[in-house]
């Protein structure tokens, strides 16, 4: 066996390989079990001792060169394949590659985002307030003094004598009015306040100790109940994705005078009566009312000049109606199978 002649033959064969498949076949013939290159190196042992070092060295060099030639040819095939793909008429360099799976927004976040979009498009500003609130803003400023029975209905997590976990988003009403008037501004004022609230509730199908509300406040000259109804109807139509009918019933909240419970016609039976609406055709959806003069005064606004309306939407309730969820504990249950049912985060 003449290693030099064999090398010339093999290198020519590698060069002549027409496609990746025949190159792979050649590789097998040279380096597979009983492959020609392997045999060449092995043939050293059959030689007389004095010839072995020279022959062995040459055989190894040939082996390395052939290996390198195979690798180089393989690379050229790969590069040519990419070139062909790039040159093809249907090649689209803007097409996105494979994308990793995205997560899901929490349903409360989905609905809150839609509400914020809607209200900001109507000229409302997004206000925020602290979750650890003072007794003054949570109660007193809202016309609920220390001995008022309305405090009883909000089982409160007290932190110390003057601070608590806010039981509703309403304290941000007076915070916002004070901030505005302190700097000499005056109404019109339109704000929404989405946020987390806390009450020492016994948790069951429809009660949670931690829940989400979205407060709304509008103060201006000549604001009326008609403005309130129109705003609420618009909001519910968008969120429930259908035309809605609403009705007002009297409701008592110390920080509004006239206070209302606003009902919407039942989305499950279109008002005909079903188990969800307890055969009444109506579902209680949000409390609201005309801002009490004392609350406007606390905010530094003259109730003789201005009037306003406010509402406090329970976000979970709206989300439950929208998606047909029947247990409020799902929201914070941490079960990924629940979340995976909502649309993936848009790209
Ligand atoms: N803050 C009240 C609650 O959590 C709800 C509420 C009622 C808010 C009437 C309002 C309103 O703004 O006008 O029970």
Give a short summary of the structure.
A hairpin with a 5-residue loop joins strand 6 (246-250) and strand 7. The protein is 39% helix and 18% strand.
Features:
347 residues; 11 helices; alpha+beta; two-stranded antiparallel sheet; seven-stranded mixed sheet; binds 3,4-dihydroxyphenylalanine; single chain
Mean residue pLDDT: 92
The percent range for strand residues is 15-25%
Strand order of the largest sheet: 1-4-5-9-8-7-6
Number of strands: 9
User: What string gives the helices and strands in order?
Assistant: HHHHHEEHEHEEHEEEHEHH
Largest sheet: 7 strands, mixed
Structural class: alpha+beta
Number of helices: 11
Uncertain stretches: none
How large is the radius of gyration? 38 Å
Bound molecules: 3,4-dihydroxyphenylalanine
Overall shape: it is elongated
Query: What share of residues is helical?
Result: 25-40%
Distance between termini?
65 Å
């Amino acid at each position: 066996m003449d290693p030099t002649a064999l090398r010339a033959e093999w290198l020519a064969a590698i060069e002549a390989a027409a496609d990746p498949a025949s190159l792979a076949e050649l590789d097998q013939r040279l380096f597979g079990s009983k492959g020609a290159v392997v045999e060449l190196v092995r043939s050293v042992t059959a030689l007389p001792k004095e010839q072995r070092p020279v022959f062995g060295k040459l055989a190894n060099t040939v082996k390395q060169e052939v290996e390198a030639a195979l690798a180089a040819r393989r690379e050229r095939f790969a590069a040519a394949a990419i070139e062909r793909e790039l040159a093809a008429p249907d090649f689209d360099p803007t097409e996105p590659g494979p994308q990793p799976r995205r997560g899901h927004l929490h349903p409360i976040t989905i609905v809150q985002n839609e509400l914020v979009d809607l209200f900001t498009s109507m000229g409302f500003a997004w206000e925020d307030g602290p979750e650890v609130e003072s007794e003054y803003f949570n109660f007193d400023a809202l016309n609920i003094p220390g001995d008022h029975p309305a405090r009883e209905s909000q089982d409160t997590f007290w932190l110390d004598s003057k601070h608590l976990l806010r039981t509703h988003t309403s304290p941000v009403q007076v915070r916002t009015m004070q901030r505005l008037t302190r700097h000499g501004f005056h109404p019109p004022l339109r704000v929404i306040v989405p946020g987390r609230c806390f009450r020492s509730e016994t948790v069951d199908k429809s009660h949670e100790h931690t829940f989400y509300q979205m407060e709304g406040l509008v103060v201006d000259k000549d604001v009326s109940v008609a403005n309130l109804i129109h705003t609420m109807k618009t909001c519910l139509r968008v969120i429930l994705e259908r035309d809605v009918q609403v009705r007002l019933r009297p409701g008592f909240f110390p920080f509004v005078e006239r206070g209302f419970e606003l009902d919407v016609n039942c989305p499950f039976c279109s008002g005909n009566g079903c188990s969800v609406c307890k055969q009444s055709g109506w579902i209680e959806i949000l409390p609201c009312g005309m801002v009490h003069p004392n609350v406007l005064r606390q905010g530094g606004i003259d109730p003789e000049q201005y009037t306003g309306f406010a509402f406090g939407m329970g976000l979970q309730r709206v989300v439950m109606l929208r998606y047909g969820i029947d247990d409020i504990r799902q929201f914070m249950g941490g079960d990924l199978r629940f979340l995976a049912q909502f649309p993936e985060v848009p790209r």
